[in-house]
Amino acid sequence: MVRVRAGVVPVLFLLVACLSFQQLCASDDTVFYDSFDETFEGRWTVSTKDDYQGVWTHSKSEGHEDYGLLVSEKAKKYAIVKELEKPVSLKDGTVVLQFETRLQNGLECGGAYLKYLRPQEAGWEPKIFDNESPYSIMFGPDKCGLTNKVHFILKHKNPKSGEYVEHHLTTPPSVPSDKLSHVYTAILKPDNELQILVDGEEKRKANFLSADDFMPPLIPTKTIPDPEDKKPEDWDERAKIPDPNAVKPEDWDEDAPLEIVDEEAEKPEGWLDDEPEEIDDPEATKPEDWDDEEDGEFEAPKIENPKCVTAPGCGEWKRPMKRNPAYKGKWHAPLIDNPNYKGIWKPQEIPNPSYFEADQPDFEPVAAVGIEIWTMQDGILFDNILITKDEKVAETYRETTWKPKFEVEKEKQKDEEDVQGSEGFLSSFQKKVFDLLYTVADIPFLSAYKSKIIDLIEKAEQQPNLTVGIIVSIAVIIFTVFIKLLFGGKKPARVEKKTTGTADASSSEEKEEEKEKEGTSAEDEKETAAAPRRRTVRREN
Fold first, then answer.
1. Shared-domain flag, residues 220 and 113
2. What is the pLDDT of residue 7?
3. 447: domain range?
4. pLDDT category, 488, cuts 50, 70, 90?
5. Percent of the chain surpassing pLDDT 70
6. Which segment of the chain is annotated as a signal peptide (predicted)?
7. CATH (domain of 56)
């Protein structure tokens, strides 16, 4: 029987754990990692500069127990930085930059990128970290207006000029438009290759020394246009010129109009010359609160003349215009080849004083990780910021920290979209039903009940769950009126409306009698007759 000393078992367990979760033992490869399981306070430094008023909070990702660094306020500038234990070189082998961000409220205008800063000797301090603090790389999503991209910017020193130049990755990936957690990865390789991954999928591959992959290119052009060179005064860049020998034809009339009256047109049969296109609304009534002295004389609003609906037209008929066949416009001499044409002038090329050659970029070391953004949205959550020298370590973090959250969020989003889809179909169906009911309310034999039907429709629009019951109520009203008409019941009284909004005495008596039979009070009918109508207010100065 083999005996195992007590201290060996924990060691074996630790070794197994390290093999299953590689980053725990990858201290040599993992340069920096922050999961934000613990608060950032005391570990990260918030900029004290006056411009940066945004408040950072240690908050959970929505729907998870996982914590992150949260942008908590809208329309603010934010700046926070974390110094590394020691600067990391970007020249020695592979370096992987990776972090997660979740745009919990979307992103209309703002950034969610990280800056990988140079050592403080370059001229910055954590307490006054701002947009001028010198960085080596800026990486991450940015979206505002026409800008929608995952930035990768290398700030590189030109060895000839000594100037630091921002080199932007061309054709960068776009930012995912949802509100899910996403992980962004930049892999810098010793063969000058750059890979940009979004959610572990390669979206862009580039070469740091390629003139096509960065703008401006890392390696300047050998020659540049001479800034001192000037175009000669007699240099003619016109390829074509007007023919100096051309003469305007005698029959060319420059004053002929573009359009003329069509003398062959005839007035359509049935045209109503004496009918105006609009008439006063015969149903309009002067509101009870109308004050002639303050509001001026009441004038009914205009409506389309119903007689003009079926007629080809109303009012004075005029012949239409047509294109003038004699129109030629202003005469111009035809163009001919310019005998003095010398081409488009360009300054001569001279050697570029900033040109240099390099086998690889002269990366500046990274001594800190900072977030310096200006955003119109809140709810931006940063998490699992990683710098490592091993691609597999970065992949392990993606699989163990990001992917489980993403799968849960994606499933929840799908369920919400399914619910919204069904609700959208129901809403569209209800709208069609309401439109049909409004048409039904305009049927002439239902005129006495129109206000009541419209009230029911409006109630259904405000409370969609009552739609079925209200449809039944309207159907009962229609059925009742139809039975009365069919079997000799008294027809609803026609209400004659005047501009003063009053009816004659006999009409009022008929309405009162009809309302008693229908179980409706006279006061209800008055409220219906006084329903608000469109009015035109015209004040006399």
1. yes
2. 43
3. 422-481
4. low
5. 82
6. 1-26
7. 2.60.120.200
